[in-house]
From TrEMBL:
It comes from Winogradskyella bathintestinalis. Keywords: Membrane, Transmembrane, Transmembrane helix. The chain crosses the membrane at residues 19-36. It comes from the Bacteria. This is Uncharacterized protein.
Amino acid sequence: MIITKLLGLTTFITKSKKAKIAVLGIEIAVLAYALYQQKSEEKNKRLKS
């Protein structure tokens, strides 16, 4: 994922653990949202059938 590449870039630029944790937190939030959207779409497909 793009955010994983950003984590590598963040590691290269700074050794800050807080920055790494922030990037990981954003990545987890994006993945959680994508899973939620996928489940919503599947649920809508079942209801339409």
